């Protein structure tokens, strides 16, 4: 029998990478560790982009190797006109890791642009990777914001008096102009009464008037400004200055709201103004919160309007806006900080009801198919607020989340995951304590989207309105058309 040769002692201690070369081990395989760069997609086509606008696409850099990939440069070749931009311009990736690289394209004129994105790295096989880029600048509608003035000078206004001025925002371009966020800074003696946020001004003449009031609290002078953001590609931000009683020469306190995100109604939210400050240290500050807008039918109120940290009960789905102003120890008031947030139901089915009189008691009902009005357990209402409707856990059980007996409402019933079937929405004018003829309104939200809103006038108490029914799993609401009727009972049975 032939035996394999035994390596010499010197060979036994050599490192593995040198073993084959030094010891003549032709049958020994060595797996060296290298980075291996890959990209997806392998080319980028931006298509047609209107001149003065921009577009962004993302590619993924991947390290498919077994060592760290060091990308020393990511740049567009021949990009002196900065038509393309790249972020980041370098990166380090561990084995099997990946990262997105954003490529922006902003054509300067009506040309076809074809260039290469060059990626340089320590990959020994592909030290330079090229990704073809293509995009064309084309003609198209473009908005163009124009202000009637860049400053409002209110002149001399006595303390205790109010002066009103205005300016106009006009779209002189041929594309729709959309106004984004507007931010007021400086003195709180200036109050914007017509905010342009969210306005869309049609091309070639669309206009919006911004009205500003000046009510000085001292004759030392006030100054401030309004910053307006829009989709104008070459003027995305413009500013209008406010001056009153000479303008003054001091800094104002700054109100700040830690704005809540999306809220699942009904719920109590925190309103945090503790980030407010005075740049000159004239503290303590005093606080003034206000609820600027809320959905129709909401009875929401801010709990403590003079606190730095307060709360508010959000009772209906929709859009809310709160405002905060702070005043320093010298009596100077900030411009208002504004916070707009959405209340969006998280449940699959969310039903709301409110009415327009006090001293009345209306009740909202959600009834399973096959059950009568007020029959347990099929009618979710004031006397059966959280019935058991199935065997698949609590997700298919409804909840009367909000009940109101004093008038106006609202009332809410929510259902996380309805079982298949029909769900009937009913409203009962339970008791009239002096409110008289009343209009009730019902809103149906399905998967967080308002599906339907409908109203009904009640001339008498103890009448029932069959609003309609929700078909599940179709997720549609069908209104019913029938007369109000007097129920057989007012109690659950």
Helices, strands, pairings?
Blueprint: H1 9-12, H2 16-23, E1 37-40, E2 44-50, E3 55-63, E4 69-76, E5 84-87, E6 91-93, E7 98-105, E8 112-121, E9 128-138, E10 145-147, E11 151-153, E12 163-171, E13 177-186, E14 190-192, E15 200-201, E16 207-214, E17 222-230, E18 237-244, E19 267-272, E20 286-293, E21 309-314, E22 318-327, E23 337-343, E24 349-355, E25 360-368, E26 379-380, E27 399-402, E28 411-415, E29 421-432, E30 438-446, E31 449-458, E32 464-472, E33 476-479
Parallel strand pairs: 2-9, 11-18
Antiparallel strand pairs: 1-3, 3-7, 4-6, 4-8, 5-7, 8-9, 10-12, 12-16, 13-15, 13-17, 14-16, 17-18, 19-21, 20-22, 22-23, 24-28, 24-30, 25-26, 25-29, 27-28, 29-32, 30-31, 32-33
Shape: globular
Rg calc: 34 Å
Which stretches are low in confidence, meaning pLDDT under 50 for 5 or more residues running? 1-30
What is the count of β-strands?
33
Q: N-to-C terminal Cα separation, in Å? A: 98 Å
Largest sheet: 5 strands, mixed
Number of domains: 5
Share of helical residues: under 10%
Mean pLDDT comes to: 91
Portion in strands: over 45%
Number of helices: 2
- Classification by helices and strands: mainly beta
Q: Taking strands numbered 1, 2, ... along the chain, how are they ordered across the largest sheet?
A: 2-9-8-4-6
Supply the key terms.
five-stranded mixed β-sheet, mainly beta, Immunoglobulin-like, 493 residues, 5 domains, 46% strand, disordered N terminus, 2% helix
């Amino acid at each position: 029998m032939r035996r394999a040769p035994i390596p010499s002692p010197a060979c036994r201690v050599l490192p593995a990478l040198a073993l084959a070369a030094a010891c003549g081990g032709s049958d020994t395989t060595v797996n060296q560790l290298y980075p291996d760069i890959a990209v997806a997609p392998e080319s980028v086509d931006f298509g047609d982009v209107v001149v003065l606008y921009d577009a962004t696409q993302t590619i993924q850099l991947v390290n498919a190797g077994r060592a760290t990939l060091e990308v020393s440069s990511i740049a567009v070749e021949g990009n002196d006109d900065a038509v393309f931009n790249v972020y980041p311009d370098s990166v380090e990736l561990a084995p099997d890791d990946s990262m997105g690289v954003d490529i922006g394209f902003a054509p300067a004129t009506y040309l076809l642009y074809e260039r290469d994105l060059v990626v340089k790295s320590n990959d020994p096989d592909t030290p330079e990777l090229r990704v073809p880029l293509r995009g064309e600048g084309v003609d198209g509608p473009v908005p163009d914001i124009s202000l009637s003035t860049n400053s409002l000078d209110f002149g001399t206004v006595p303390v205790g008096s109010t002066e009103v001025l205005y300016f106009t925002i006009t779209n002189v371009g041929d594309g729709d102009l959309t106004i984004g966020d507007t931010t007021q800074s400086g003195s709180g003696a200036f109050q914007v009464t017509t905010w342009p946020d969210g306005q869309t001004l049609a091309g070639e003449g669309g206009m919006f008037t911004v009205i500003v009031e000046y009510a000085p609290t001292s004759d030392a002078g006030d100054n401030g400004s309004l910053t307006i953001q829009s989709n104008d590609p070459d003027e995305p931000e413009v500013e209008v200055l406010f001056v009153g009683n000479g303008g003054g020469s001091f800094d104002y306190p700054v109100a700040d709201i830690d704005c809540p995100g999306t809220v699942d109604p009904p719920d109590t939210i925190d309103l945090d103004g503790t980030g407010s400050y005075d740049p000159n240290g004239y503290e303590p500050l005093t606080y003034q919160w206000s609820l600027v807008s809320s959905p129709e039918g909401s009875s929401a109120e801010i709990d403590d309007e003079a606190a730095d940290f307060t709360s508010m009960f959000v009772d209906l789905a929709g859009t809310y806006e709160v405002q905060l102003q702070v005043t320093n120890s010298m009596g100077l008031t900030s411009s208002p900080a504004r916070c707009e947030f959405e209340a969006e139901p998280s449940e699959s089915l969310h039903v709301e009801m409110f009415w327009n009189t006090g001293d009345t008691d209306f009740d909202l009902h959600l009834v399973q198919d096959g059950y009568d009005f007020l029959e347990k357990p099929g009618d979710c209402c004031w006397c059966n607020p959280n019935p058991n409707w199935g065997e698949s856990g609590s997700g298919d059980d409804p909840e009367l989340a909000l009940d109101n007996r004093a008038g106006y409402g609202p009332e809410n019933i929510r259902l996380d995951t309805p079982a298949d079937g029909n769900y009937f929405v009913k409203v009962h004018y339970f008791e009239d304590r002096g409110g008289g003829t009343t209009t009730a309104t019902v809103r149906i939200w399905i998967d967080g989207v308002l599906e339907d809103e409908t109203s009904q006038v009640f001339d008498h108490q103890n009448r029932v309105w069959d609003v309609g029914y929700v078909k599940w799993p179709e997720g549609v609401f069908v209104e019913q058309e029938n007369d109000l009727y007097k129920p057989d009972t007012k109690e659950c049975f």
